[in-house]
Amino acid sequence: MADLKVRQRGITVARPIIYGNTAVVLTQKERDALPTPDHTHRWTVAVRSAASVPDSDIVGGADDISYFIKRVTFKLHDTYSNPNRSIDKPPFEVSETGWGEFEVQIRITFVPESGEKAITIYHHLKLHPWMPVGTDPIETPSLEQAAKMGPVHSWQYDEIIFHDPFQNFLNVLLAHPPTPLPKTKKKPIPFHTSNPASLEASKGGVPEFTQEMEKEEAERLENAKKSVIAECEKWRAILIEKEKELDRLNKQLAES
Fold it and tell me: Model confidence over 137-188: pLDDT tens digits?
C-alpha cells in the first residue's frame, strides 16, 4: 500500500485562480444611510477559481477552491476597523465601502495535508473606471459618469503550482479537476478591454477569462522574455568592447 505522506517526485499540478476586485458607485441614498457618508463606492475583493458560472455577473468562482485553500487573509488599509480580515470558508472575499484606492495584501493559506507554505500576493484596489484612450489620464470621471459606466472590474489571472505533492494531497487535487476555461469569450466585455472606450461599450457584460487570453498572456510573457534577453546581450557586447578598450588604454599607459 502506497505511503500517503510520501511526496510524488516529478509531478506538478496547477490550479488556476483569479484575484482582484469589483466596485460600484453608491447612490446618494445609500451614502446617506452610511455612518461614513464620505464613502462613495461599495467594493468586493476576492480570491476565486478562474472559470465563471455561465450567465453570471460574478467574475470567476465556478469552483469551490476550499479543497486546497484553507484560509485567505485580506489586509485592508489601516483606516478600516479590523483591517486584517481572515476568511476561513468560501467565498473567500471581503466587501466594504470606501472612497480611496489602496494596496490589499492577500495571504493564502493552504490546507494542512498539502504541506505547502502560505503565499502572499498583492492587489491594488481599483474603484475608478479606466478612461477611454486619448483622454486626459489625470481626469477622473464624476460619480454620475462612473455610475453610468457600470461596475469597475480589476482582476488578475494566476496559477498556483504544486510541485511534488504528497500522495494524499495529490489524491485530493485529482478528485477536484478545475472547470475548463472557455476557448473564446462569450460575454460582451473581455478582461483586457474592461476599460471601456465609451459609456455604451461597458454595458451588458462582465469580464471573463478564457483559454485564448491565457495563450495571449503566455505569448506576451515570452516576447517580453526575449526582449529582456536581447537587451542584456546588447549591453553585454557593449561591456566587452569597453573592457577591451580599457585594456588597450592601460597597455598604452604602461608602455609610455
Answer: 556 677 877 777 778 889 999 999 999 999 999 999 999 999 998 887 665 4
DSSP string, 13-78: EEEEEEEEEEEEEPPHHHHHTSSSTT--EEEEEEEEESSBPTT-SSSSB-S--TTTEEEEEEE--T
As for how many domains the chain has, the answer is 1
Residue of 207, 89, 103 whose CA lies nearest to 157: 207
- Strand 103-110 relative to strand 92-98, pairing: unpaired
Question: What's the CATH code of the domain at 77?
Answer: 2.60.40.1970
Task: Flag whether 224 is in a domain.
Answer: no
Q: Which residues of the chain have pLDDT under 50?
A: 1, 188, 190-204
For 89, the grid coordinates are: 470558508
Domain limits at 30? 12-209
| Any domain includes 32 | yes
pTM above 0.85, yes or no: no
